[in-house]
Amino acid sequence: MATILSEPETASASPFSMRPLAKGFAVQVDGLDLSKRVDPDTAAGLRQALADHKVLVFRNQDLDSDALIAVAEQFGRIFPGKRKSAVPLKDLLARLEGNVGKDGKPNGRLYDSWGLRWHSDVSWSDHPGVATMLHSIMLPDAGGHTEFADMQASFDALTPDQQAELERMSATHNFWCVRAFRHGMILPWARHPAGGLHNISLKEHLFQWLRVVVHSLTFKAPKHRAVMVHPVTGRKSVYLGHHAWRILGLPWPKGISLVNRLNRRTMASTEVYRHEWKVGDLVIWDNQSLLHRLMPFDTRNQPRQMRRLVVILDKKGVLTT
Ligand SMILES: [Fe+2]
């Protein structure tokens, strides 16, 4: 377990110190300028800190894509997403996300309104997100915070019987099916969780539904155990959230209602840290022990732009049953 330091560092000690931000997890890391490459010992210290504290907050970081990629590479392989020929690789790896249009103004849209529900990044892949990095560039005057829920604390709070029930369970995670069928998020008439209708054209709606159909027919959703054993700390956490689509061995309606019940139960017993962003914040979080969600904001009138990277597991099947 990393020590949270309360005194300024000496020259021979670790170059960073940490102070707690919430009960039991989430720390602010002071003393590092991440625009400069960190040495291997510091990188190892940050990896351990992430495993121990789950959320690392770095303030006042002036970082371009190259610097963010260099930091992310200290944690693992970066999720590449789908490449369009016109997009430079570094902009694909360190992707700009938000509701800021090409004219620099808010456009009423979120890159992914799904982020408003509790989830673990890229759990719908055979290469689930290990860590996510988010660097704030433009922020709304109100809202747009990110909340983190400690799913290790949530597992610890369950009774032994409840823990055993979860440990016997596996779920498939399916982003597009969940989005389309479970919550109707991309129906043209669906209301955006942040308020109002989704601000996308009929053509885009049709394109999204085409993706859902193609995805349903061709995609083999990954199976993950409902209890994740953290590869560094060995601690157990509840690994469901709103990407979970089917429970193995149960008919879909029964499974999805069980997922809903388990999500409600685990979220009721967990600790939550709300990060209220400042421009220049870099937050790195551990997707293997947390769920997170974006809080709503006025997407039509307020800009929110972040640069985001997701570090994934390198080995296919590490988390699958
Ligand atoms: Fe996310």
Number of strands: 16
Percent of residues in beta strands? 15-25%
Average of pLDDT = 84
Level of helix content? 25-40%
CATH homologous superfamily classification: Clavaminate synthase-like
Number of domains: 1
Structure description:
The chain is an alpha+beta fold and 321 residues long. It has a single domain, classed as Clavaminate synthase-like (Double-stranded beta-helix), CATH 3.60.130. It is built from 8 helices and 16 strands. Strands 1, 2, 3, 4, 5, 6, 14 and 16 form an 8-stranded mixed beta sheet that branches. A hairpin with a 6-residue loop joins strand 10 (227-229) and strand 11. The longest helix is centred in the middle third of the chain and has 17 residues, at 202-218. It binds fe (ii) ion (FE2). Fe (ii) ion is lined by residues 115, 119, 121, 292.
Can you give keywords for this protein?
disordered C terminus, binds fe (ii) ion, eight-stranded mixed sheet, 321 residues, three-stranded antiparallel sheet, Double-stranded beta-helix
What's a concise summary of this model?
The protein is α+β, with helices and mostly antiparallel strands. 26% of the residues lie in helices and 22% in strands.
Question: What is this structure's SSE topology?
Answer:
Layout: E1 17-20, E2 27-30, H1 40-53, E3 55-58, H2 65-72, E4 77-78, H3 89-93, E5 95-98, E6 129-138, E7 146-150, H4 151-156, H5 160-167, E8 170-173, H6 175-182, H7 202-218, E9 223-225, E10 227-229, E11 236-238, E12 244-247, H8 252-268, E13 272-275, E14 282-286, E15 290-294, E16 305-312
Parallel strand pairs: 2-3
Antiparallel strand pairs: 1-2, 3-14, 4-16, 5-16, 6-14, 6-16, 7-13, 7-15, 8-9, 8-12, 10-11
This protein binds fe (ii) ion.
Fe (ii) ion is lined by residues 115, 119, 121, 292.
